[in-house]
Each structure stands twice: as structure tokens, then as C-alpha cells.
Amino acid sequence: MNYSFNQILINYAPFILLFVAGWFFGSRHERQHLARLQVAEQELGHIIVSSERFYRPTLVADSEGELVLGSVVIAQDYFKMIIARVLSLFGKNLTTYETLLERARREAIVRMRTEANAKGYTHIYGVRLEVTNINQLGSMVEAIAYGTAVISNDRVNTASIVPKPSI
């Protein structure tokens, strides 16, 4: 069969248009999510988060620590998965998965801080993060952040604070 350029364009134009539209809207959604995370991190910045395991804060009288956790499941769009598969053939860095994991971790920490804030806590220590693939393709990940939340009088050693990821 001898196809002309016009026939090839007619046959593949819908696929190309859908691919470009999916890429555009997926990237737009990702940028909006990262912007919302940055705003939430700034609003919850007064809650100190530390990964120190044996931190012994000076608690406010009649207060106790409590486990707080944040959990999120985030899915990657199929268009970025296709790009990741092509890049993996050449042994390239899979930046599409890196952003997926970054968004999941940050969202889990924001949700953990939100829970602590709702209960009136000022510090979270012993913070741990766990990230797990949900499906075989690696397109969905679950991130869980948990730690012990307390109301503390302590001044914080800034070296022990978990740094906020940059965008």
C-alpha cells in the first residue's frame, strides 16, 4: 500500500492531538498541585517537623504525644508514562517518576502537618516516610508520613528540622 502524506496525517493526527492535549493538561495539573503544596507548606510552617528519633521535648503541662499521619495515593498520567518508557530504553533519568514521588512525599507531609495543626500540636518528631507502588506499572504510588506530635516549649535546633523540598 502506498500512502500519501495526507492519508498518513489524517490517520495519525487524532492520536498526536490527543497526546499533546493530554501532555498539556497533565503538566498543568502537576504545576497547580505543586503550587498548592507550596502554599500549604508555608501556612503550616509553624509546625516543626523533625526526623530525630530520640528527641525528648519539654512538653506543656498536662499534654501528651500522639501519632499523626498523612497518607496519599497519587497517579501518573499515561502520557508521562509513555515518555518514561521511551527514556528508560536509553537509560535516561526518569524525571517524570521523580516528580511523582516528590509530589506524593510532600502531600503526605502536608496532610500530617494539617492533622497536627487541627489538634493544636506544635512539633512533630520521629517522622518517617514510606512510599509504595500500588500497581505493576509504577504509575500509582502511596506515600505515608507519620510521627509523634506534641505541644512543646522547646526552642528548636534548626539542624534537626526536615528541609522543605524545593520546586
Write the layout of secondary structure elements.
Elements: H1 5-43, E1 48-49, E2 66-75, H2 78-89, H3 95-118, E3 123-133, E4 140-150
Features:
four-stranded mixed beta sheet, 3 helices, alpha+beta, 167 residues
Question: Could you characterize what this model shows?
Answer:
This protein is an alpha+beta fold. Helices cover 45% and strands 20% of the residues. It has 3 helices and 4 strands. Strands 1-3-4-2 form a 4-stranded mixed sheet. The longest helix has 39 residues, at 5-43. It is elongated and about 80 Å long. The termini are far apart. Mean pLDDT is 82; it is low at 156-163.
Brief rundown of the structure:
The protein has 167 residues and is of the alpha+beta class.
Strand order of the largest sheet: 1-3-4-2
Strand content: 15-25%
Shape: elongated
Q: What's the total helix number?
A: 3
